[in-house]
Amino acid sequence: MKVVYLDFDKYQYDVHSLFKAFYPDEEVMVLVGKRGELQEKEAKIKDTDEIFTINNIETIEKNDLKKQIYTVLSEKTGKQLPWGNLTGIRPTRIAMNLLEEGKSDVEVTDYMKNTYFVSDEKLDLCLEIAHREQEILKDIDYENGYSLYIGIPFCPTTCLYCSFTSYPIGAFKNLVDEYLCCLEKEIDYVAENFKGKTLDTVYIGGGTPTTLEPAQLERLIGYLKDKLDFSHVKEFTVESGRPDSITRDKLKVMKKLGVDRISVNPQTMNDETLKLIGRRHDVKQLIDAFNMAREEGFDNINMDIILGLPGETSVEVSHTIDEIIRLGPDDLTVHSLAIKRGSRLYEVLHEKEIKGELKVPILSSINNTASMMEIAASGARKMGLTPYYLYRQKNISGNFENTGYARKGKAGIYNILINEEVQSIVALGAGTVTKRVYGNGRIERCDNVKDVKLYMEGIEEMIERKKELFK
Ligand code: SF4
Question: CA–CA separation, 159 vs 137, rounded Å?
Answer without folding.
Answer: 34
